[in-house]
Amino acid sequence: MVLPRFSRALAAGAAVAALALGALTTSSAAAAPADDGATAAAPADGAPAGDVSVRTTVRPSLVLDRDFPDPDVSKFGNTYYAYATNQGKNLPWATAPDPDGPWTFQSADALPTLGAWAKTGRTWAPDVSQRADGKYVLYYTAWHTASGRQCIGAALADSPGGPFAPVGSEPLICPLEAGGAIDASSFVDTDGTRYILWKNDGNAIGATTWIHVQRVAADGLTFQGGATQVLRNDRADEAGIIEAPVVTKVGGTYVLFYSAGPYSTNSYGTNYAVASSITGPYTKAFRFLMTTDSLDGAVSGPGGADVLRDAGGDKLIFHGHRDAGGRGMYVADLGWANSNPVVRGSRVRYEAERGTLNNCTVRENAAGASDGKVAAYIDHADSWVDVGSVYVPTSGSYTLHVGYANGSAVTASHTVTVNGVSAGSISYPITGWDNWQQSSKDITLQAGWNTVRLGKGTAFTELDYIEVA
């Protein structure tokens, strides 16, 4: 018999309980999104095959296959409207009967004339919302003629397709001393209070970048009080850049989505932060919600995201780089795990040692392992690890990726049980101890919460984490 890495005598004790809840099950609306509540890296090159199949993972759909960056999407009446950064027009737009399409690109420019303060060429990141009086208000970023910086202007229209007419002769938001302003978005709270979110463009002058929240009157144009700084570019994985803020409210939790990294590269991604107040304090998720890697390369540089709360199912709408050039518009199913977002097709990581363990234990200081810990000694007939908090937005096929190390002399395996029903087994080719690789298996999950159990199979292996895409 081949022994596991350490003496079996160390594993002879009773079951050890790790954290019962994964990161997606925060205990309160303002709790921090924990480290396994967002996406993780894709498998390393040369990961073992095992019984690998990722064919049925449902990826985000490319619904507008043309250059259409920074999409802003809303439903007005029975039609969905999408607006984008300038591409030959100040305000390109498209319409569809459903978020998943088909989308029709419209020939007219919805903003034929910019404000007198602006010049054409850099008209970015629009946001369109409807006021209580029925008029439509547009926030747009444009090139400030006098300073050469980017500033935010406003325009009004009687129809969501425009034409929008600029309001005033000056920008709505233009803090030149802070680098200017970009990426405005609107938010109406459950009590009817309106806000604008925006970013000071500190990246343009080497200054600190902040996401701001500004309360406005019902007209969407009149400020009420001053702006509050709620989020800044303070993490290494953001590469100094945060932008494209969009907020939504889930129960009593404010969820602020933002993009980070250089937009022109595959390092661009989407993350989120949560708070119990619109003005914060916000706590960022430990791992990004979407990256090129978390989507297994299905979308490159996923960012510029907008949230569509819809009776037919919530969606995350964002752009990604196209092989043909430019950035196309993608749509993905969006769910809420205790107010934390989950995007279908983007990997979510759950640390094995934080699950419920039966007749096995946690090995500390596991060299090279995620979080430095693993579930070990799963070598008795009644040994198993439950990851009982796997949340998915939509029922159907998903791919289970397991991070493992196998120092046995033969291929090892675990049994797989989903919601109490056998789902077969997953195999682990030999890697050596502390050489962490991945093996994958397609499973069927129900919308909402699921329990995935890995139990004793053949030979011995240690579990680092699971990821569900």
Secondary-structure map:
Blueprint: E1 61-64, E2 72-76, E3 79-83, E4 93-96, E5 104-105, E6 118-130, E7 136-144, E8 150-157, E9 165-166, E10 181-188, E11 194-200, E12 210-216, E13 228-232, E14 242-250, E15 253-260, E16 269-275, E17 283-284, E18 300-308, E19 315-321, E20 327-337, E21 340-343, E22 348-351, E23 356-358, E24 361-363, E25 374-376, E26 384-392, E27 396-405, E28 412-418, E29 421-428, E30 437-445, E31 448-456, E32 462-468
Antiparallel strand pairs: 1-20, 2-3, 3-4, 4-5, 6-7, 7-8, 8-9, 10-11, 11-12, 12-13, 14-15, 15-16, 16-17, 18-19, 19-20, 20-21, 22-32, 23-26, 24-25, 26-31, 27-30, 27-32, 28-29, 28-31
In which range does the helix fraction lie?
under 10%
Total beta strands: 32
Q: For the report, how would you describe the main beta sheet?
A: 5 strands, antiparallel
**If you compute it from the alpha carbons, what radius of gyration comes out, rounded to the nearest whole angstrom?**
24 Å
Mean pLDDT comes to: 89
Low-confidence parts, pLDDT < 50 over ≥5 residues? 1-55
Which class do the helix and strand fractions yield? mainly beta
> Count of helical segments?
0
Oligomerization: single chain
Bin the strand percentage.
35-45%
Which geometry do the CA atoms define? elongated
| Cα separation of the termini | 35 Å
